[in-house]
Amino acid sequence: MLISSNLLLPPWLQALLAEKFFDACLTHKGARKNEKNIFCLDCCISICPHCLSPHNSHRLLQIRRYVYNDVLRLDDAQKLFDCAFVQSYTTNSAKVIFLNHRPQTRIVNIRGNNCSTCDRGLQYPYLFCSISCKVDHILTTKGVSGLSSFFCDCKFLPLSEPGSDDGLMTPDSVLEPTGSAKTSSSSGGYGGVDCKTLACTATTEIVRKKRSSLTNSCRTMFPRITEISSNLMNRRKKAPCRAPLY
Predict the structure, then answer these.
(1) pLDDT at 41
(2) What is the pTM (predicted TM-score) of this model?
(3) DSSP three-state, residue 243
């Protein structure tokens, strides 16, 4: 987080924002898939899939990795936080948001739409690039009393897909549409088609139509040449004739 002290936050949120995930579990060193990519909200610790047995009745949060940063599925995050105006991404048919702010790699565009906390460039009308940036902004502007509307009352939080997800996500992602800044579990869904897919489909159809019209026009203008070239291409190859020996 960007604030100097996070002692004002609940213990589980302090641990969640400060935890370093995807390190090897020391308890299960020799096991496969022993990365600590699960966070137990009741124990305030990160665990690996092999440590799940003692935590089955606890609130568990799956942490995922996207472009070397920790992300949460939007559906999971909305059960704990108010995610309005936090920029989301769609990857692997799932909407995700970043847990912590990311280091700046480009010069800040002052005229553009930037994060209210760390000045990272955002798509309009989003205000925050991550959960930690929104928490920092609330503490700075409203104080501790402003956090009461930020948290959701979540008594039960099981893993969405236990044992079938290693938490790694491919880097093929797209931004959410600009009209979906106030995210909710019922808005958007996973069955929609993104703009990239629609654009590729439309481009393919245009290319096919152009090729078809071009071929038809050539046949109309040069019918004889088209027929001759067709006959030449379809002519079977005869047996080769050897030169006479002298």
Answers:
(1) 94
(2) 0.66
(3) coil
Residue 120 burial class via C-beta count within 10 angstroms: exposed 0-12, middle 13-18, buried 19 and up: buried
**How do residues 215-238 score in pLDDT, each as one tens digit?**
555 555 545 554 555 555 555 566
Write the DSSP symbol of residue 168.
B
Residue with tokens 């019918």: 223
Rounded Cα–Cα distance for residues 206 and 141 (Å) = 52
Q: SS3 for 146?
A: helix
* Both structure tokens of 109: 């565009």
- Measured CA to CA, the distance from residue 79 to residue 143 in angstroms comes to 22
Q: Is 85 left (phi over 0), alpha (psi -120 to 50) or beta?
A: left
Average pLDDT, rounded, for the chain: 76
**DSSP code of residue 124:** T
Virtual CA dihedral for 98, 101, 102, 105, nearest 10 degrees?
130
Q: Tokens 């039960």 correspond to what residue? A: 156
Beta bridge partners of 73: 96
Do the beta carbons of residue 169 and residue 65 sit within 8 Å? yes
Answer yes or no: are the C-beta atoms of 169 and 120 closer than 8 Å: no
106-153 confidence digits (pLDDT tens): 777 777 889 999 989 899 999 999 999 999 999 999 988 888 889 998
Q: Angle CA(22)–CA(184)–CA(10) in degrees, nearest 5?
A: 50
